[in-house]
Amino acid sequence: MYKAMTRAELAVFAEKLVKGNTVYGVVAKDGQFAWDSIHDHKELVLDYPTTISSPKKYFLPPTETLLKFKLAANSPDPKAVNESKDAILFGMHACDIYATRMLDNAFSETNNDVNYGEKRKKALIIGVSCQPDPDCFCNKMGVDEFVFDQKNIQSKSAPFDLFIVNLIHKYVVIIGSARGEEMLKKYAKTIEATTQDIEAMKIIESKRIESFTNKFMLNYDQLPKLLAKTYSSPVWKEYADKCFACGTCNLVCPTCYCFDIKEEVHLNLKDGLRNRNWDSCMLPMFAEVAGGENFREHVSDRLRHRLLRKGMYIQEKFGMSGCVGCGRCYRNCTADISITEMYNRLKEVSEND
């Protein structure tokens, strides 16, 4: 269940993985960090703060071709397209592992989406420990409790295949699945983690939890009741007046999975594609229907819908938080709107009603 390796052994492990597999990981880009293809293990960054966007794009690409078709008479049936391939995602934080498991509920277990499902089946996830920055509040979203559930780890059914914890002088590797154990045996040199290693890991995790500074005033299981109570609150307009409704918050969110389907015909007027593209509930046309009726015409309606999805609707449907507390929406918001501040403000207003 727990293995240990040195820093040098971890470097050799990463080098072997990159040489023989398709590996995606985090690289430094213009002073920030982003997920990208890894062609040299030395490019791989493991001690990074939260990335600009999430690794969701490898399972649900921003634009994905689902069908290819021809328009000519007596042409063959449309051809389904599935560009899945074996891949290793090396270095996912716990919040993104949680988010991936939530997406599994939406695409694999509920709707059996073939394109998403095949990509997930062929992917191996290696997680890494992290240190929270001022915008993180995953400690209030139930992330650690879910990702590191001991029953799942013991039964090798964790939401990750391997998870690497930095003890400074060495690393502890948590084995989360049979595939992860097989990968470790094939590519890495490890020894059994000692009792002292495991105790040190627990101390480090305890200190990590204590280091959160974000002032999020609720736990995820309190959000549904709060959001139901404040549905008609003036707070929505208060923040909507600042919002540009640009949709950036949706694009960087690791749990947003809404998409649009468009069919495109090539210039030769003979061939075409059916594409799936990311969509955003913050955009004006998202809730527009035939005849021009728009069920969420005002920004305040769309902003409320987004937060209800994160804090209520997804919990009701899947039993998991729709927000993982990564803080990406705030970091990338053009109007500098903090989801923490919004929820805290709703709490404040509800208590004064």
- Indicate the percent of residues in helices: 25-40%
What is the average per-residue confidence, as pLDDT, rounded to a whole number?
95
Which structural class matches the secondary elements?
Answer: alpha+beta
Order of helices and strands: EHEEEEEHHEHHEEHEHHHHEEHHH
Cα(first) to Cα(last) distance is: 51 Å
Largest sheet data: 8 strands, mixed
Q: What is the strand arrangement across the widest sheet?
A: 3-2-6-7-8-9-1-10
Q: Would you report the number of β strands?
A: 12
Radius of gyration from the CA trace?
22 Å
Please, how many helices?
A: 13
**Apparent shape:** globular
Q: What amount of the residues lies in strands? A: 15-25%
How many domains comprise the coordinates?
2
Descriptive report:
This protein has helices spanning about 5-20, 95-110, 115-120, 145, 150-155, 180-185, 195-210, 225-230, 235-240, 250, 300-320, 330, 340-350, and strands spanning about 1-5, 25-30, 30-35, 65-70, 80, 85-90, 125-130, 155-165, 170-175, 190, 260-265, 270-280. It has an 8-stranded mixed beta sheet. A 4-stranded antiparallel beta sheet has the order 5-4-12-11, with no helix packed on it. With about 350 residues, the protein is an alpha+beta fold. The protein is built from 13 helices and 12 strands. Helix 8 (about 225-230) packs antiparallel against helix 11 and helix 8 (about 225-230) packs across helix 13. The protein has 2 domains: about 1-60 and about 85-210, no CATH class; about 220-350, no CATH class.
